Amino acid sequence: QHTAQHNQPYCLSLGKTINRSIMYWGEPTASIDWCEENYANSYYIAEWYNSWSSLFFCVMGLTGLYLNVKQQSLKTAWLGSILLIVVGLGSFAFHATLLYSSQMADELPMSWAALSWCYIQVERGPKERFPMLPRLLWLYSLITTAWQIALTHSFPILLEVQFGLMFVYIMYINYRHYYCKLQPGDPHFLFWLYAITALVAFFGCWIPDQVFCYYWRNSAWFNPQLHAHWHVLMAISSHCGMTLTLFFRAKMFNRAPEIRYLFGVLPYCHQRPSPPDKR
Known about the structure:
Elements: H1 48-70, H2 75-97, H3 100-122, H4 133-151, H5 156-178, H6 188-211, H7 213-217, H8 226-252, E1 258-262, E2 266-270
Antiparallel strand pairs: 1-2
Helix pairs in contact: 1-2, 1-8, 2-3, 3-4, 3-5, 6-8
């Protein structure tokens, strides 16, 4: 049972009252509501554009999983792709319902996916350096999951800070240990595609969506639906980051990696067939 305060999102709720009769999922209980007008396009979906754009994570995750299995990539890469699919499904549920339980289905997999890729960045060599690391990450995941369920409703900024720090760490490792070691002929562009799409998503979509939301929803201007664009850009950035990591991992195992393009557009790491990496 949530308090009356929690029935109104902590930000971007612009004082507009929605007719309860058009809300299939009832009064929103999530701790945040985005700039998109609720139930404007469907009786069943609270945020139309934010919901459907979330499925782009599933598209990238399914594509990555198919390629990882086909190329016999490391098992943790399979997990990263699966979690990206879960992120997309959870995000769809969150934006479609604006319920607190669905919000957890969106935010918790984001943390789990970031943790899995933090592990891949740390254990980037052919030999395992920290045997206890998987157990420690599992423990950390359990603690933060309980912490988020208990506190995120009152302090949503805590989740954003935690996820942001992990993402910055992953980007730093990709630059420090991958980009700086690229050789002539290696995919330099892939790092910049990964980094620039993430920066554009944050500074060009996430922040403006919150800062200028009041003006977009209370003026004659159209709403650019920047949070939906955030979903698409972050899904692309995640795929490019995974592909860059797999490229370097394949080089360490002498699998002659090269960047190819699925349908001539989507980059992926093609590797020479060999016994799969079990980690």
